[in-house]
Design brief:
Blueprint (H helix, E strand, L loop, with lengths): L6 H24 L5 H4 L5 H13 L18 H14 L7 H14 L2 H12 L5 E4 L15 E5 L2 E12 L6 E7 L14 E7 L5 E6 L8 E12 L3 E2 L5 H18 L4 H15 L7 H29 L7 H24 L17 H8 L10 H12 L5
Parallel strand pairs: 1-4
Antiparallel strand pairs: 2-3, 3-7, 4-5, 5-8, 6-7
The structure holds flavin-adenine dinucleotide.
The site of flavin-adenine dinucleotide (FAD) has 18 residues, from strand 1, strand 3 and helix 12.
């Protein structure tokens, strides 16, 4: 690993820190009633929208986007600084993370001028919520097995099939969906071909959205069913059959994004220890718990170094390899270990969910404990990350 931040990068950090210091506290004060930790995604959409708009006012909503589309053309180093500063400040979540991290950049990369003018500002300013519809009942890890059919009929595609696990589809006006436009591709053994990316207006006739209740008791994702839903050909992103290319760009960004999330865990650990001092101080004298805290602290630090090593490679125009899949694995493992530690550090009351009067921080830690199971499934399961490492990094024979 070999780099230090340049004067421009340090200036970027100072500008962001200054902006957060002057804008975040008044925002939190104004939105104090909306307690996001306890209500998860569902209860906090208004606050998220307001926060994303506030970020956009300062041109801090999508720093990696090109300047002409409201970003800052941030380099990989600035992007990492951004993640670090956001983790330090602990702001509310944004309204449209799918849109900002994945779909917006893909429209900027693949969209026609008209598509960009129509949708990019909409995403940036949190006008509408966006979802990403890739997974299907028979296509998750093996995404290229997707079978939602889109058959061309004049100026439209007619969609039939089912998507699943589509996060926040019940709130979304728009979604980026992968569909199969070549019905013979799977049977012919060309399953990565004949896939097309379509932007879909979820208010179209023939689309049914059924929320799925998850482990937290909330409905964070949905099944989306298409029954002869007609989508204009003008809503296609990229050419017919280029969907796999579009999707790989999207997932690449998602994986780099999750690798950066490890940075936030140091602050979660600190917050958890500070809270334990008031709600369950005796835990901090327990030798076994102290050893677990020390181990988690050490793992977080070397995950941070792993991220920096990936960054160092990117700065030298090398592939961040195998650091990115390793960091994703570390992030999943650490998120779950940290959530389990929280339960023991904060004592029995941490197990209460809201609206119990005994729940610690209105059930935020209980929710985290169950929700963190997601980290070893979303953005590529742990088994798949290990397969990638075995195949491409260690080059193990099958
Ligand atoms: C909270 C949450 C939000 C999500 N949001 C979205 C979303 O917005 N949009 C979207 O499109 N999808 C979303 N997903 C779906 C997610 O991308 C898939 O769950 C994931 O890709 C795994 O696919 P699957 O669930 O079909 O599991 P499967 O692929 O069926 O895997 C089942 C099990 O088998 C293992 N396995 C599979 N193949 C192999 C192999 N070759 N070798 C070894 N083990 C293997 C897996 O690791 C896993 O343990 C979300 C998932 C979660 C949990």
């Amino acid at each position: 690993m070999d780099f230090s931040f340049s004067p421009e990068e340090l200036e970027f950090r100072d500008e962001l820190r200054g902006w957060l210091d002057s804008n975040l506290p008044p925002f939190l004060e104004e939105w104090r009633q909306e307690d996001e930790g306890s209500s998860g995604m569902l209860g906090s959409m208004d606050r998220r929208k307001a926060w994303q708009r506030k970020l956009n006012e300062g041109r801090w909503a999508a720093v990696t986007w090109p300047e002409e589309w409201g970003g800052r053309d941030a380099t990989a180093a600035q992007s990492m600084i951004y993640s670090e500063e956001m983790a330090r400040a602990r702001p509310p979540a944004v309204f449209n993370s799918n849109g900002l991290w994945q779909i917006g950049p893909m429209i900027i990369r693949w969209g026609t001028e008209h598509q960009k003018q129509t949708w990019v500002p909409n995403i940036l300013n949190a006008d509408d919520h966006w979802c990403q519809g890739f997974s299907e009942p028979e296509a998750g890890s093996d995404l290229a097995n997707l079978r939602t059919m889109a058959i061309r009929d004049g100026d439209h595609y007619v969609l039939n099939g089912q998507k699943t696990w589509t996060s926040s589809a019940q709130f979304a006006k728009w979604g980026l969906f992968l569909v199969r436009t070549d019905p013979d591709a799977i049977a012919d053994g060309r399953k990565h071909e004949g896939i097309t990316a379509l932007i879909v207006d979820l208010e179209t006739d023939g689309i049914e959205i059924q929320p799925i209740r998850d482990l937290t008791g909330e409905e964070t994702f949905c099944e989306v069913t298409f029954n002869d839903a007609r989508v204009p050909v003008d809503y296609r992103l990229g050419e017919d059959g280029e969907g796999w290319l579009v999707a790989m760009g999207t997932l690449g960004k998602e994986r780099v994004g999750t690798a950066g999330m490890a940075i936030g865990m140091k602050h979660d650990l600190d917050a958890m220890i500070a809270l334990a001092r008031s709600v369950n101080p005796s835990a901090l004298d327990d030798t076994l718990i102290r050893a677990r805290v020390a181990e988690v602290h050490t793992r977080i630090e070397y995950t941070r170094l792993l991220n920096l090593r990936a960054l160092s490679r990117i700065l030298k125009d090398q592939k961040p390899w195998p650091e990115v899949p390793l960091a994703k694995l570390q992030w999943s493992h650490l998120s779950q270990t940290l959530a389990e530690l929280a339960m023991d550090l904060l004592g029995p009351d941490a197990l209460y969910a809201k609206p119990s009067e005994f729940a610690v921080e209105n059930g935020a830690w209980n929710r985290l404990y169950v929700f963190q199971r997601y980290t070893s499934i979303g953005a590529g399961t742990s088994e798949i990350q290990k397969n990638i490492l075995a195949d491409r990094a260690i080059k193990m024979s099958r």
